[in-house]
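User: My instructor asked us to take a sequence, write out its structure as tokens, and then describe one feature of it. I'm not sure where to start. Here is the sequence I was given:
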Amino acid sequence: MSTVETTTRLMTAEEFCDWVQRPENANRWFELVRGEVIELPAPLKIHGLICFNLARILGNFIFEQGKGYGTGNDSGVILARDPDTVRGPDIAYYEDANTIAEVHPKYGEVPPRLAVEILSSSDRYTRITEKVNDYLNGGVELVWLIEPELRSVTVCRAGRQAQVLKEADELTGEEVLPGFHCRVGDLFLMAGDRPRTQQAPDNTEGKTP
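Assistant: Let's start with the prediction itself. The structure tokens for your sequence are:
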């Protein structure tokens, strides 16, 4: 997501966590980048739809494998200190807790193994590159950048060249989520896009029991 507003006072992650909870900041989206607060635009409907699709597909896999957990809604994670950086992936996969009681009540400093960003037309290349670098430098092993307009996913990993997957390609969890796979195009499907199961014709007319 692109930056629309900044503040100049450097904050710690703890100060930032308290600040975003203030009533005047309700229903607004922020991140902390090297101590500076940036405000993000509210997500558009297509953003939420793709988030929901991926959360459904990924969530089903996580529950089937019985390991790890997912987060959404830009849940923050501390990626750097002095100055502090708190980023909020659209979707993320963690393995630092086995029960909800073990999940950090605020941000936490254990990075997700997978971070996912859904891009918009207003996102600038430099901002997205900076965010991906923050993820990878902060210990995230795998980053997916989903581009709705192109119906593609860019796969980013530390020390490797980014890979662009098209609609017909298969997206996998690699070593982070062994066994996970889905067609890139499935991230952009709605219920009405899938072929409906047709009922077999009734051939009993005129037949005696």
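For the description part of your assignment, you could build on this observation: The two ends are 65 Å apart (CA to CA). Try explaining in your own words what that tells you about the chain.
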